[in-house]
Amino acid sequence: MVKNMHSEIYFCLTDTQDSDATNDHKTTKNIAVKASFTEQHPQFQKTIEWLAKGGDIATKMKTLTNKYSITKELQEKLTNLTVKN
Hints:
Layout: H1 2-14, H2 19-22, E1 35-36, H3 44-52, H4 57-67, E2 68-69, H5 72-84
Parallel strand pairs: 1-2
C-alpha cells in the first residue's frame, strides 16, 4: 500500500503543466518584409529629386533603408548622385 501511495505522489508532482514546464522560450516575431528598391522602382526618380533637395543625406538614406531593402551599391550610387548635384 505504501508503495502505491508513493507512485501517486510522484505522478501528482510530475504531471504539472505550469508555464515553466511547458514554455520552450522560443519567441516568434512578425518580421515585415521590406519592398526591394532598385533603379527600376517607380519612386526611383522622385527619390533622387528628394535627396537632391538638400538636408542631411545620412538621415535621408536611413529613412530610405528603413522603408526599403536596398543594396549597398545602390546606396552609394544615390549618395554620389546627390553629392554631384
